[in-house]
């Protein structure tokens, strides 16, 4: 049991840091995608206000994804 724990520790650390890095960069990437989407809509002739209204869907999707992941993490530890 202890030997398995020592073998799993580096892999769990890498997994944890990767998930944390994904969480940190998700906001930046969503913001970048949203602004590119809004610029494309405005360049195609849509008003800036309507483009911003459609662009807020990106933020809502990001929030839904992060909330879903936050709810699943404690549940997965309770099952083991």
Which properties best describe this structure?
mainly alpha; 2 helices; 92% helix; 0% strand
In short:
The chain has helices at residues 2-43, 48-79. It is an all-alpha fold. The chain has one domain (25-80).
What this model shows, in words?
The chain has 80 residues and is an all-alpha fold. It is built from 2 helices and no strands. Helices cover 92% and strands 0% of the residues. Helix 1 runs antiparallel to helix 2. The protein starts with a helix and ends with a helix. The model has no long low-confidence stretch (mean pLDDT 85).
Write the layout of secondary structure elements.
Blueprint: H1 2-43, H2 48-79
Number of structural units classed as domains: 1
| Number of separate strands | 0
Instruction: Give, in order, the helices and strands.
Output: HH
Q: Tell me, what's the shape?
A: elongated
Strand content: under 5%
Largest sheet data = none
Radius of gyration from CA coordinates:
19 Å
Mean pLDDT: 85
**Structural class determined from secondary elements:** mainly alpha
Enumerate the spans where pLDDT stays under 50 for 5 or more consecutive residues. none
Terminal Cα separation, in Å? 15 Å
Summarize the amount of helix as a percent range: over 70%
Query: Helix count?
Result: 2
């Amino acid at each position: 049991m202890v030997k398995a724990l020592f073998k799993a520790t580096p892999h769990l650390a890498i997994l944890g840091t990767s998930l944390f890095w994904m969480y940190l960069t998700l906001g930046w990437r969503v913001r970048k995608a949203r602004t590119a989407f809004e610029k494309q809509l405005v360049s195609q002739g849509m008003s800036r206000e309507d483009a911003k209204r459609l662009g807020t869907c990106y933020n809502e999707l990001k929030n839904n994804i992060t909330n879903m992941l936050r709810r699943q993490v404690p549940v997965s530890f309770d099952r083991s």
